């Protein structure tokens, strides 16, 4: 039997079979011993903020997490990127487990993925590589269903005009993602495909051994009464007042996310012993790496005004056009409302002779891993017509932390989230380069009669490195592609949180299967890598109890 705890705020009547399944477990039996695995998905609150970011003039930033069934896959931008083969080969070289290598992880990406045609059913030849995709998985992936021909053709033409600076890549998800190509996203029939619509969809939610307990927030995992080093019980609340417990006969699988998982561990007395005892929390397991190595990708949005009416703003700022497109979407699931936030994406490396490498070792996983991302052709809320390039440092050197609130370390209070954006000078150098790469792309011949100029502070910022640094510090946000707070390490290492089989070091009965176990952030949006980690984790669990 599997029980998933999800803390969210949707009306249960709107959740159909999920709510019906959940109701089966809303009784005093929840406090009894249940012969099951416990899948703990204690999703974080959606109004978190960071600690003051020293690298951003002390700014406190929003840090939203998915507070709904499906977690952040139900709220994110739906961008589907796996990362490079180097990213996963580095996991193997770091942990000593060959199962994390690209060639061994690719089948798990394929197991998760269900490739579907784009909403407009346009000819996709030359826009992706069918050989590296699967039609047999559960999470739908597709190409843009409304390609915006004016800007799209200019982007692709630039890969022909400037192939050295902006090479065309047929498929970002084939293992070598350096270049410019068509965006892939988790969309099916013009709508979002999330882990809620797939893994908790009609095919699975009716299973008799699955119960989804809504509006439940996990506070701690607890050791067995027979051994302080064997974990078997989950403590949770549905009202943050009364506590309930359920006990697993085999093991607890914690997947509360990159923020929630270290938070639950720390509240459970698993973490740095000295720090925990200083907060009045009894230390159960001295594991100093919990909450450390927290890594995220900083993001900056950059906007240029364009000489075209064929942009996202042509309907987002026109109530009549928007109503027409909404009707079209409701009737046929076609039109501009079928798409995610961009049509193309570019993954690029810094020049190998960049001066920054005189000061810093390259933080990327290897030559197939980018330092920079440009998400191209995004909508803008300003009046007018625009081209937006959202730039990100996808191989950052900065490392932050998840720690308990020292003022009130209650399990139901938000933790202290410190992504430490731009703590390393490498990341500032890389973000400057990413923005200048956007400027270079939009100065290409294909954009000569299209781009009118940068908007607002960006124009002034491009004048000098110092001005650009100030612009970045004032406008950057976290990418919310966080990993690392419960990172895996070699089996007998004295650092790290989990072994390569994802079992928590030094104890039994407790395994972690979410993005927090990744020791390095992949050079990608982290949704697809997290799905693959979860699929491999499932196989590990099944093989352990076969």
Description:
The structure is a single chain. It contains 14 helices and 25 strands. The chain has 546 residues and is of the alpha/beta class. It has two domains: 1-72 and 195-297 and 396-422 and 476-546, FAD/NAD(P)-binding domain (3-Layer(bba) Sandwich); 79-192 and 300-394 and 424-456, Glucose Oxidase, domain 3 (2-Layer Sandwich). Strands 5, 17, 18, 19, 20, 23 and 24 form a seven-stranded antiparallel β-sheet that branches. A five-stranded parallel β-sheet has the order 9-1-2-13-25. A three-stranded mixed β-sheet has the order 3-4-6. Strand 1, helix 1 (16-23) and strand 2 (37-40) form a beta-alpha-beta unit. Helix 3 (102-112) crosses helix 14 (527-544). Mean pLDDT is 89; it is low at 6-45.
Helix-strand layout with pairing:
Blueprint (H helix, E strand, L loop, with lengths): L1 E5 L9 H8 L13 E4 L44 H11 L6 H11 E3 L23 E5 L5 H13 L17 E4 L1 E2 L1 E2 L2 E2 L2 H4 L3 H4 L4 E5 L2 E7 L7 E7 L5 E5 L4 E3 L2 H11 L2 E2 L1 H6 L6 E2 L5 E3 L3 E9 L6 H4 L2 H14 L11 E5 L23 E7 L7 E8 L6 E4 L12 E3 L6 H17 L9 E4 L2 H5 L3 H11 L1 E2 L31 E3 L14 H18 L2
Parallel strand pairs: 1-2, 1-9, 2-13, 3-4, 13-25, 14-15
Antiparallel strand pairs: 4-6, 5-18, 7-8, 10-11, 11-12, 16-21, 17-20, 17-23, 17-24, 18-19, 19-20, 21-22
Helix pairs in contact: 3-14
InterPro entries: FAD/NAD-bd_sf, GMC_OxRdtase, GMC_OxRdtase_N, GMC_OxRtase_C
Protein name: Aryl-alcohol-oxidase from pleurotus Eryingii
Cofactor: FAD
């Amino acid at each position: 039997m599997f029980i998933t705890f999800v803390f969210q705020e949707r009306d249960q009547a709107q959740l159909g079979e999920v709510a019906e399944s959940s109701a089966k477990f809303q009784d005093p039996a929840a406090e009894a011993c249940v012969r099951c695995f416990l899948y703990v998905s204690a999703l974080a609150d959606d109004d978190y903020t960071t600690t003051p970011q020293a690298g951003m003039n002390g700014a406190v930033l929003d840090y939203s997490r998915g507070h709904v069934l499906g977690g952040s896959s139900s709220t994110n931008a739906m961008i589907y990127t796996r990362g490079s083969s180097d990213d996963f080969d580095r996991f193997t070289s770091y942990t000593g487990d060959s199962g994390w290598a690209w060639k061994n992880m690719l089948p798990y990406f394929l197991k998760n993925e269900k490739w579907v045609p784009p909403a407009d059913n346009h000819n996709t030849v030359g826009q992706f590589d069918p050989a590296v995709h699967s039609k047999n998985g559960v999470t739908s992936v597709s190409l843009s269903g409304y390609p915006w021909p004016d800007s799209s053709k200019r982007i692709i033409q630039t890969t022909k005009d400037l192939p050295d600076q902006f090479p065309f890549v047929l498929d970002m998800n084939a293992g070598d993602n350096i270049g410019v190509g068509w965006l892939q996203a988790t969309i099916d029939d013009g709508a979002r495909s999330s882990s809620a619509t797939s893994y908790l969809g009609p095919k699975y939610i009716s299973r008799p051994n699955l119960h989804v307990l809504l509006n439940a927030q996990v506070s701690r995992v607890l050791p067995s009464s027979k051994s302080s080093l064997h974990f078997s019980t989950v403590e949770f609340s549905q009202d943050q007042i009364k506590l309930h417990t359920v006990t697993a006969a085999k093991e607890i699988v914690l997947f509360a996310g990159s923020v929630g998982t270290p938070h639950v561990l720390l509240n459970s007395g698993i973490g740095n012993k000295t720090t925990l005892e200083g907060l009045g929390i009894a230390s159960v397991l001295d594991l100093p790496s919990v909450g450390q190595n927290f890594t995220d990708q900083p993001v900056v949005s950059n906007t240029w005004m364009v000489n075209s009416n064929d942009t996202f703003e042509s309907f987002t700022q026109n109530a009549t056009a928007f109503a027409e497109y909404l009707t079209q979407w409701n009737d046929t699931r076609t039109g501009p409302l079928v798409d995610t936030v961009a049509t193309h994406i570019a993954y690029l490396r810094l020049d190998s002779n960049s001066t920054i490498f005189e000061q810093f070792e390259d933080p990327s996983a290897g030559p197939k891993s980018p330092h920079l991302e440009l998400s191209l052709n995004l909508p803008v809320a300003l009046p007018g017509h625009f081209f937006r390039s959202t730039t990100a440092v996808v191989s950052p050197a900065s490392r932050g932390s998840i720690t308990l609130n020292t003022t009130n370390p209650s399990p139901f209070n938000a933790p202290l989230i410190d992504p430490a954006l731009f703590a390393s000078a490498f990341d500032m150098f890389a973000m400057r380069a990413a923005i200048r790469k956007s400027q270079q792309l939009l100065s290409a011949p294909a954009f000569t009669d299209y781009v009118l100029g940068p908007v607002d502070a960006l124009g002034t910022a491009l004048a000098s490195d110092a001005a650009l640094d100030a612009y970045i510090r004032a406008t950057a946000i976290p990418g919310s592609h966080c990993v690392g707070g419960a990172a895996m390490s070699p089996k007998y290492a004295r650092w790290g949180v989990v072994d390569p089989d994802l079992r928590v070091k030094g104890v039994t009965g407790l395994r972690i299967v979410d993005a927090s176990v990744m020791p390095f952030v992949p050079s990608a949006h982290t949704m697809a890598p997290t799905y693959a980690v979860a699929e491999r984790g499932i196989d590990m669990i099944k093989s352990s109890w076969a």
